[in-house]
TrEMBL record:
Its EC number is 4.2.1.47. This is GDP-mannose 4,6-dehydratase. It comes from Racocetra fulgida. Keywords: Lyase. The keyword Membrane does not apply. Residues 2-267 form the NAD(P)-binding domain. Its cofactor is NADP(+). The keyword Lyase applies. PANTHER family: GDP-MANNOSE 4,6 DEHYDRATASE (PTHR43715:SF1), GDP-MANNOSE 4,6-DEHYDRATASE (PTHR43715). It is an enzyme of class 4 (lyase). GO terms for biological process: 'de novo' GDP-L-fucose biosynthetic process. Belongs to the NAD(P)-dependent epimerase/dehydratase family. GDP-mannose 4,6-dehydratase subfamily.
Length: 281
């Protein structure tokens, strides 16, 4: 594998890389992908996630590889945002609720436009939440699994979260082209992810209170392990995302292989092992 220095905000750089490599496939996985951060860095998110996709497509055309490159855009379930139907499929109207979602919406449609205008092989994969032990530490699933690992090892006492009732279609990243929705077809709340994570270390969480005052206590010790902090709420929230992968199943034979419980267990155990290794070092 040969690595090249690149930047989705630099058109000249992208043209240079594509002309050097002369690829037959390009997968655009680059993005400022944290939804909450996109409210604080809206312009940067739009530049990288939206215009960055356009720059890559134009680099392909500039180098003269329009008929030789297959282009894949990593799209997102955040396009659906304030959902108008459940579950969401390839034909569900988009209603993004964050600068991240809006930037990705531009990227989605510019891919469609270049496919139709220049007959490029360019497609979107609308991926619902795909998690694994490699997930960034600021994303809620990894934040939960890492905190549970630290609590298990006596390094942390309490986990602070935002909206516990937000529902997401969480699948394993290893399970995840016309444009296809890839999802599990199941939805689980943040609260559920917390409960399943603590169950991995044989602890039960009992919820008390409502709204911002809700806490999760460890059943056996009565220690508060989970609290809500308003700073983790988004200015505009996406309450429910649930994907319908029927088209990918029918046309590609795609099926998810890792169920929700197995995903949570793998993430928590990986973080326990990682925390132990850091202690030993």
């Amino acid at each position: 594998m040969v690595l090249h220095y690149g930047d989705l905000t630099d058109s000249t750089n992208l043209v240079h890389i594509v002309s050097q490599v002369l690829p037959t496939e390009i997968y655009n996985l680059g993005a400022q992908s944290h939804v909450k951060v996109s409210f604080d860095m809206a312009e940067y998110t739009g530049d990288v996630d939206g215009l960055g996709t356009l720059r890559l497509l134009d680099a392909i055309r500039t180098v003269g590889l329009t008929n030789h490159v297959r282009f894949y855009q990593a799209s997102t379930s955040e396009l659906y945002g304030k959902v108008v139907e459940t579950p969401q499929s390839e034909t569900t109207p988009f209603y993004p609720r964050s600068p991240y979602g809006v930037a990705k919406l531009y990227a989605y449609w510019i891919v469609v436009n270049y496919r139709e205008a220049y007959n490029m092989y360019a497609c979107n994969g609308i991926l619902f939440n795909h998690e694994s032990p490699r997930r960034g530490r600021t994303f809620v699933t990894r934040k939960i699994s890492r905190a549970v690992a630290e609590i298990h090892l006596g390094k942390q006492e309490c986990l602070w979260l935002g909206n516990l009732d937000a529902k997401r279609d969480w699948g394993h990243a290893r399970d995840y082209v016309d444009d296809y929705v890839l999802a599990t077809g199941e939805t689980h709340t943040v609260r559920e992810f917390v409960e399943k994570s603590f169950a991995v270390i044989n602890k039960s969480i009992v919820w008390e209170g409502e709204g911002e005052e809700i806490v999760g206590r460890e059943k056996d010790t009565n220690i508060i392990r989970v609290r809500v902090d308003p700073k983790y709420f988004r200015p505009t929230e996406v309450d429910l995302l649930l994907g319908n992968p029927e088209k990918a199943n029918r046309q590609l034979g795609w099926k998810r292989k890792v169920d929700f419980d197995s995903l949570v267990k793998e993430m928590v155990l990986a973080d326990i092992e990682g925390a132990r290794s850091n202690s030993e070092n």
